[in-house]
Amino acid sequence: MKNCNNSLQEWPEPIVRVQSLSESGLPSIPDRYVKPDTERPSFDSSNDANIPVVDMSGLYGHDDVVRTATLRIVLEACREWGFFQVVNHGVSPELMDAALGVWRDFFYLPIETKQLYANSPRTYEGYGSRLGVQKGAILDWSDYYFLHYLPSCLKDYKKWPHLPPNCREVIDEYGREVVKLCGRLLRVLSVNLGLKEHFLQNAFGGEDIGACLRVNYYPKCPQPELTLGLSSHSDPGGMTLLLPDNQVTGLQVRKDTSWITVKPAPHAFIVNIGDQIQVLSNAIYKSVEHRVLVNSGKERVSLAFFYNPKSDIPIEPAKELVTPDKPALYTPMTFDEYRLFIRLRGPRGKSQVESLKSPR
């Protein structure tokens, strides 16, 4: 089931917790976190654009005009932005708040408690502070917690935090509800491609899919203009549902040549297309580069839930979307092969999915 390359045994150098650096009160960030000039953030607040907001209640009422208009908003978002927000999505606001709350409480625990869950590059599962195993790499200003939710054979409660006391129960219920929402969204995405509504779900492996959670903790940073909380990348998996911090913005999405700072709607999920859906749709839908800014005055917490194909199914463009005029842009590759490619190298913009394109 799991191909966790045995060459990924340990991190190449000792792990430093970014939260500890932040809390030490240092006036400047270590060189290891200083990005090259071309990758440093822009804080231009003059651009008022925002990713589209979709009211999902419009998909399930009896008004065909509203349903058609809602489908059109989703289609244009997937083609033009690769991102949209959903409201009235069926996950309770109380559960969303509880999920953010237990994870914020986890990161406030003593370092000795969190270290019990320290991760390794073998599976990334647990408490971490870096991606990629390149020695001497420039690192991002963030800590995180990564855990598997599906398939159930990978779900290991021992790897989940035991504190705060209700943490595991909240994570479990949150995962159940978000999986249901992902299924509803995949049906919408399939219909908008002109395919049967279960097409993408079946291409992912039916009920036998992968799902995992990455909780991001972005501590205060004394020099936010020099670093990033998460470097520019497109998501390698199928689809991501992000529960953002409503109090502190940070997510930026690339639109053409600009970086747009996402303004979260209250109790919305931010949905983005991953590389696997770009491949399946033969690039009708776009997985788009995004990154995260950090803040000198406020920490930030967000929950990224990744809904992925079964790891050993070859993913390729849907036959129904391939024509003589629009040949298949990608050769088949399993998600496991693709994920390993990224785990070795860390986030690298859109270079991963672009490198898959078939030679023409």
TrEMBL record:
Transmembrane segments: none annotated. GO terms for molecular function: dioxygenase activity; jasmonic acid hydrolase; L-ascorbic acid binding; metal ion binding. Keywords: Dioxygenase, Iron, Jasmonic acid signaling pathway, Metal-binding, Oxidoreductase, Plant defense, Vitamin C. Pfam families: 2OG-FeII_Oxy, DIOX_N. Its cofactor is L-ascorbate; Fe(2+). One of its GO terms (biological process) is regulation of jasmonic acid mediated signaling pathway. Residues 208-309 form the Fe2OG dioxygenase domain. InterPro entries: DIOX_N (IPR026992), IPNS-like_FE2OG_OXY (IPR044861), IPNS-like_sf (IPR027443), Oxoglu/Fe-dep_dioxygenase_dom (IPR005123), Plant_2OG-oxidoreductases (IPR050295). It comes from the Eukaryota. Belongs to the iron/ascorbate-dependent oxidoreductase family. This is Leucoanthocyanidin dioxygenase.
